[in-house]
Every structure is written in C-alpha cells, then in structure tokens.
Amino acid sequence: MLDNISLSIPQGAFIGLVGPSGCGKTTLARCLNGLIPHFHPGELEGTVIVQGLNSQDHHAHELAQKVGLVFQNPENQLVAPTVERELAFGPENLGVPRDEIRQRVETLLHQHHLEELRDKAPYELSGGEQQRVAIAAVLALQPEILVLDEPTANLDPLSAFEILQLIAYLNQEMQLTVLLIEHRLELVLPHIQELVVLNKGQLVARGPPREVFHNPIVAEIGVAVPGMIQLLKQVDNPRIRSTTPLSVEDAVNTILKEVRS
Amino acid sequence: MFEYESGHPVLRGLNVELEPGQVVGLMGENGAGKTTLVKQINGLLKPTTGAVYVDGVDTRETSTAQLAKKVGFVFQNADHQLFADSLHAEVAFALRNLDFSKEEIDDRVARYLELFELTRYKDQSPFLLSGGERKRLALASVLCVEPKILILDEPTQAQDALQKEKLLKFMDSFRDPEHILVLVTHDVEFAIKAVDRLLVLSQGQLIADGSPHQILSNPRILDRARLLPPQLTQFAHKLAEQFPEFPLNVATVSEAVEAVNQLIRSQR
After folding, report:
1. β-strands A194-199, A202-207: how paired?
2. Which residues of A touch B260 (CB under 8 A)?
3. Reported pTM
4. Structural domain range at position B135
5. From the CB of residue B221, how many other CB atoms can be counted at a distance below 10 Å?
6. What is the CATH number of the domain that holds A42?
7. In a shared domain, residues B30 and B113
8. What is this model's ipTM?
9. How many CA atoms lie within 13 A of B126 on its CB side?
10. How many Å lie between the alpha carbon of A20 and the closest alpha carbon of chain B?
C-alpha cells in the first residue's frame, strides 16, 4: 500500500494530503496514531516516529494522546449517549482525574459552541454538528497533532466550509499540527502551508500549494486542480497565466489588476 | 407526505414529476429529506399520505423486488450495500436473483467491472478495496441490471478528479429518452456540470425546482439549504460587479476562460 515514503512534518504545520482514490492516504493517516500496526494487522517496514515515539513500540492509547484522528463518517467515531459523555469518554479511558475531565469537557463545550447540545444524543445531531463533536472529542485527549481523513465528505457545503474554517483556526490559534485529507481542498487552500501528493503508495510531490499545482503530475494522476487555478492557466494572457490563485478573490484580483493596468 | 414511525413528518407537500431524458439533481442540507425522498422512488419507503407512481405504477401496489428491475439505487455508503466474497460475486448477485442466463451474467459482470476499472480485483474481497473503489463497485453492481431509473446518492464522495470526469461521461451516456437519472449530492461543483434540472429540499419541503445555474446563484435558496455557490459562479458574480457585461451562467472552466478572454479583449 505504501512504499518508500520518507516524510517529516514540522510542528505547527498545516499539511494537505492528496492523491487519487486508493493511493494510500488513509493508510498513511492510520500509521500516524498507531492504528497501523496495532489495530489493522499487516506488514510494516521502516519506522514512524511521532514526537519522539516509535509507533511500533508504543500502544495506540499512548499515541492517541499525541495524535488525534478524525474519520470521514462521524457515526463511526461517536459512541456515548450524550455529547457531554462523548467528550469525557477519551479522558475517562486514560484514567484522567475527575476534576480534570470536567474542566476539559467544559472548556471544549464552550470553545466549540456545543453547550446547547450538551445533553443531546449524537444521533439527534446534524452531520455538521456530529463532526464538530467528533473533533472536540478527539481534542479532549489534548493531542498536539490532528489527522483528519476526509472530515467533510458527508457534509452539506456550508457545514463543510465551517468545519474547514474550524480546522484552520485550530492550526493557527491553537498551534495544532494538522494533516488533512480532503477533496474540497479549494476551501482551505489559502491556509495550507504544504501539500503532500501520493500516488500508488508513493510520495510524488511535496511543497507549497502554488508550487505543487504547477507540477503537471498532479493533474495527470487525477488530483482535482482547483477550478480557479485551471481557469487562469488557460487565459490568453501570459501574465495572468503565470499566476496560481488560491482563492476566488485571488483570481478576481489578478484579472482586475491586468485589465486595469 | 411521509413520516417515520418514531417522529414527525419528514416530507411534506411535495409534488414533483420526473421526465425520461433528464438528469435531475437533488440537493439540500444534512437532514433535509433527500435520501427519504429517493427511497420513495424504489419503494424502500412508501408515502404515509399521497402517492408515488413509478412508470405508471403506484408503489403501494407493487413490491420492492418488482421495482428493483426498474429502479437502481446506489447507496451513499457503499458498505451498506456490499456483502459478497468477491467483486465478481457482488456484481453477479442481482443478475442471478433476476434469473439472467449464466452467459449473460458473465458478460455483464465483465463489462461493468471493466467500465469502473475494477477488473484486476475481480476475485478479491470487496472489503480490501479503498473507499473510492468500493463506491465504484456499488455502482457497477446496480448498473449491471440496466435499470430505467437510476438513483445515485452522493456518488462523487471519495472520488478523485479523473473518476469524477468518468462519472460525468457515464451520466451523460444515461441522458436519453429511455432513462431518468437522479443525483443526490452536496457537490455543487459537480452538480452544475452534471444536471439538467435541480430540485432543492429544505426541512422536507421543495424550495426550488429549475435550472442549476439560476438556483445555485440565488442567495436566498443557497442560504436556506446550506449550499455554497460553485467557485466559478462566485467568480462570475464578483467580476460582474465590476463589469456588468460579464456572463453569470458559466458552468465549466472553458466557458469561464472564454468569458475572461473576451473581457480582456474588450478592455483594450
């Protein structure tokens, strides 16, 4: 599934992980919090080191305090009868003292605007609310790294946008290191420092989004090049063509500047 | 109207007719009732009051098995649908149940696995496939029956750009006087390219029915159904604020390129 991958992620970075369907994105994500090799059996060669811990030598419950993993479908992640209990579930399992758990839960309910949902069952919530609860529940273990595997796939566009804004906030304001697998990349592109591109289990490109989308291999292997970038690349004007807009505003401003000059 | 046993009505006051030859999009916020509505078409659910007719037949007077020959349904979550030991067995399952000949079954299984680029895995377990591949397998196993009405619930989820492009081509091939295709999606960028007509549900009611261009640039509808306009639509509207002649109904990148080229020429 994965072959010859050498990747180091600096603390505090916001990394987008992209690649065609079946290229190994989920497999790589599962290596980071020890689900591979401890939960999903298989053959693992090489080493994965997370904040100095070798994932083969440390159990998933230890790594879970370093790396929080958020899945595509929040229904697969939520287990408790209420939102409040859900947030307490992780720390309870790690034997965190009662008062400390209570404090963490209150802080998270407040920070994530979940106070009104406190006593609701996760299945009573909308998809966007469920995903917010899933993210908050992962943060209850106070990880420094957050790995999200297509967290917006089941969400309506506005909920998806809100979740991606929340992730950008966690990176910028809470200093979490973020690795995000996401097909709607255009919604967070301005916040991402680096894109990592996988194809057939191998790392084929890596760098700031502008550089990576310049590389023809990205489109060849089937990664969705954001519409704004595709658009400006085909315009009959070399100055516009040489730009790589990361947002709609970027693209519009480039054209306005050119037309008015 | 339809309500689940436990709760309040999910769908209310809906009156919609779908015509063959159309690719119809269905959008709306999480919980709007999209999946509940399409399950009325294949008879998995039947209306509490009112009626649903499929090809002239009242769904309350026929069985889900009979409807399955006419209506193909591809679930949002492929794992709710896949169960066989191999890809070959998965695709063959419905065909066997409908008493196709062995020859016909083998031929169709081969064709549909090939169409979705799954031939090389044909003897593997479906559960060894990636998320995107499982989705394509679910499609193949429904399409092989060659239904007249096809319902795709979120088919672009977990699909990369090349697969979406292929799905779009496939959907185009379904646009003929014999077929109806219903696409349930949150993917505005895909919907605007794929559908002829867009229905928008919000809280169980139909709040819009019309051209995807008009609907996906109407802020009131977008807001109620928690949709965002496609980036090309946002782009066109922003440029049109400065240059009123800039066309608002650009659906594809090449249309937008043409419009930008024209703008640049006209400003010289």
Report:
1. antiparallel
2. 231, 235, 240, 255
3. 0.85
4. 2-226
5. 20
6. 3.40.50.300
7. yes
8. 0.85
9. 24
10. 5
